[in-house]
Amino acid sequence: MALSHIFFASICACVVTAQVPIPKRKLGFIYGDVKGLTPVNIDAFLGPLCPDSKLCFPTLLQLADHYGPEVLTLRMHMFPLPYHRNSFLVAMGSHVVDNMINSSQAVYNWTGSVYDKIESLSNTATKAMSEIQIISKLSDIAGGLGLLKSAFVQKMADPNIDEDARVGWKYTCTRGISGTPMFTVNDVIVSADASWGLEEWRKVIDPLLGDNASPDLGRLHSTGCKIGTTKCEYLPGKIECCTKGEACIPNVGCRC
Fold it and tell me: Which N-terminal stretch is annotated as signal sequence (predicted)?
C-alpha cells in the first residue's frame, strides 16, 4: 500500500511539474495598429534563424497590409529550433526589443534585421564563438534599431527575458507546432507553404470574409469539375469537386 501511495504521489508530482506556465497576457507579437477583434487571425510560428521563415516573412507583412488591421490580425511567435544554435538568444532578443521600444513595429524590424544577417548567425559562421560574442553580434543589430548596445546586453541577462522566451516556446509546443514556419488561421493549423505569395494566401482568407472578400477572387479559379458538381479549391493547388449538398470549407475540402 505504501509503495502504491509513493507511486501515485510521483505521478502527481510529474503532472504538476509539466504544467505550462500561464502567461500574463496573450502571447505573440502583433503587427500594426490592431485595436479590437478582427474576423481573421493569423498566428505565424517562425524560427528566429530558419531560412524558410525568412522566406515567408515579407509575404506575411504584405498580407497584413493588404487586408488592414480592421480585418486581419497577424501575431508572430518565435519558436527557436534546437538545431539552430543561436536561435534561443535571438528569441530572447525579440523580447528585449519589445520591452525596450514602445512600438508594435519594433519586433518586426528586429526580425527583419536578423533575417538580413541570418548567414552570419548560422551554426557554421559562429561555431568558434562564445555566447557572449553572439550576444555582442545581436547588440549590433539592436543598435541599428536605435537601442544602446550596452543596454541591450544588460537586458539579455534579465531572468524575466529568459523566462518570457521559455514560456513562448512551451506555449508553441502545446499548439502542436513541430517545425517552422507553421501557421494557424483562426486557431486552425493551415497547411501553408513558406513559398506562398499573397495570391495563395488570399485563396484561404477571402472565403472566410464572404461578401467582404476581394472582388477579383473568382479570376483565380478555373473550371474542371463534372456537371452538377462545384469546384472547391480549399487550399492553393488543392482541389476537390463538391457534390450537391456539400460545402467547400477552406483548409478542409468538400464536407456535408
Answer: 1-18
Return the closest-CA partner of residue 96 out of 135, 64, 66: 135
pLDDT tens digits along 193-233: 999 999 999 999 999 998 666 545 443 334 467 666 778 88
- Using the structure block, give the residue that is written with the C-alpha cell 534579465: 158
Classify residue 109 by burial, with Cβ atoms within 10 Å: 0-12, 13-18, 19+: middle
User: In the chain, where are the structural domains located?
Assistant: 29-190, 221-256
Mean pLDDT to the nearest integer, 156-164: 97
Fold of the 29-190 domain:
Glutaredoxin (3.40.30)
DSSP one-letter code for 251: T
Q: Would you say residue 44 has pLDDT above 80?
A: yes
Q: Which of 217, 211, 215, 216 is nearest to 236 (CA)?
A: 217
Residue with cell 468538400: 254
- As a whole number of angstroms, the distance between CA 104 and CA 110 comes to 11
Say yes or no to pLDDT of 4 above 70: no
Whole-number Cα distances in Å, 112 to 53, 56, 177, 253:
11, 11, 22, 35
| Mean pLDDT, rounded, for 31-47 | 95
Contacts of 79 (CB under 8 A, 6+ apart): 45, 46, 47, 91, 168, 169, 172, 177, 180
The answer to whether the CB of 234 falls within 8 A of the CB of 216 is: no
pLDDT tens-digit profile of 176-193?
Answer: 999 999 999 999 999 999
Helix or strand or coil: residue 191? Answer: coil
